[in-house]
Design brief:
Layout lengths: L2 E2 L1 H8 L3 H9 L14 E2 L3 E2 L2 E2 L3 H10 L4 H9 L9 H6 L3 H12 L1
Antiparallel strand pairs: 1-2, 3-4
Helix pairs in contact: 1-2, 3-6
Length: about 110
């Protein structure tokens, strides 16, 4: 998995590094758990913006009581019913399917 630093993400988004850290703190963006918010998956950035629907999906996962580690693992775990990973499905604009699965897990 390719990762970016907060400074690299900030450059791609056209915002400050502090804004990137704020997005992580607000759970609108996620860093690799255990990296001290210093490694952000490159897959979470698309076309100069945070991956569309990622903030909403993170909210669903956290509302379902997922820990950072569980949410991160789920996002990058292969799911034959999608197919691929939830992140790949988000990047392919299949957010409805991914959100439904996350909601079902939260029950």
């Amino acid at each position: 998995m390719d990762t970016l630093t907060p400074a690299e993400v900030a450059a791609q988004l056209g915002v400050s590094t502090n804004k990137v850290r704020q997005l992580i703190a607000e759970r609108k963006l996620m860093a690799v758990p255990g990296s001290g918010n210093s490694k952000i998956p490159a897959d979470f950035i698309q076309d100069g913006a945070v991956l569309k629907h990622l903030p909403g999906l993170l909210t669903v996962l956290y509302d379902g009581r997922f820990t950072d580690e569980e949410a991160f693992a789920w996002l990058f775990e292969a799911d034959d019913s999608l197919p691929g990973t939830p992140v790949e499905a988000l990047r392919g604009d299949r957010h409805t399917e991914v959100t439904r699965r996350a909601q079902a897990l939260a029950l």
